[in-house]
């Protein structure tokens, strides 16, 4: 849909059907109240709502383009945050990774019949920088330099190398995407939010030697710290991630707000910015959508296709993760996924026996 001017964007979202949170929470009264506002970085209402107005299939539909957007456009963004994370007010507890040294998640699928792989990722943004599209390539390069310097000090299991997208062939890039290691460049909602502006400048991936610890640099917003491995050993995956993050936190400052926790460009990704997922095979539950939806609803789980957001599932394998990232601690977010997946596996087994 070709529309860039604020009036056109408003006309589009107010006259068309959309199930997005943007459509639900942007009343005409709010539109009039917010339309002349801008942040000190120059973010306007048009920047915040552009992607959701152009992509009526969006689930959220808004992007903050700098940390200050959360305050300047609060009347629109706060209700969206509450709705997405299922909280009554925008408030976030202090960061709490749990007692990582003593962590003891039992393997949910020792025989590896259901869980193919486990992944936990945490998003972070550099303090003092804006988000797309209010972000230049010079700033991307500056951020890349800061993070690569910090990552290059990691040792032991976390030791690895940074691979810049600027010097990577398309084939190498595609192989990493196919291996679920690298970010893709085909998310239409992120594209319309300026997430791929200036591609591939300043983008890349840090990989440890075992390919179990990964850092995405300047994908859409700033950083994703990822730990993943085959099987269902959540303790191992989570410990590795937190240990790495704590070391980087000593060297790099991240954007943080007392009410919203760690910040990023998407209201769905605030607070803990943590998404813990398993690739779970569940052919029986796939045939019993009502039961599947009920379990997901009760445990606040999100289902995605096997190649990530906006993809279809294949051979009954789904990406199952915690949906809420704000209003609970990091440890609680991981437990939410763990408990929900435990029930999914039990139910899958019961259905098999019928
Ligand atoms: N448990 C998992 N095992 C293996 N790969 C996974 C797992 N969870 C996610 N992935 C892979 O990670 C990649 C990124 O997925 P996706 O973009 O949906 O999630 P994300 O990194 O959490 O970011 P966002 O929530 O912003 O979309 C995809 O290749 C996806 O298949």
Please describe what this structure looks like.
With 354 residues, the protein is an alpha+beta fold. Helix content is 38%, strand content 16%. The chain contains 13 helices and ten strands. The protein has helices spanning 6-15, 21-25, 28-34, 45-54, 69-72, 74-85, 137-151, 170-178, 188-192, 234-249, 283-287, 289-299, 330-353; strands at 115-124, 160-164, 204-208, 213-217, 223-230, 256-257, 261-262, 274-281, 301-304, 317-322. Strands 2-3-4-5-1-8-10-9 form an eight-stranded antiparallel β-sheet. It has a two-stranded antiparallel sheet with strand order 6-7. Strand 6 and strand 7 form a beta hairpin. Helix 12 (289-299) runs antiparallel to helix 13. The longest helix is centred in the C-terminal third of the chain and has 24 residues, at 330-353. It starts with 5 loop residues before the first helix and ends with a helix. The model has no long low-confidence stretch (mean pLDDT 95). Adenosine-5'-triphosphate binds at residues 117-119, 121, 180, 224, 228, 275, 277-279, 304, 306-309, 319.
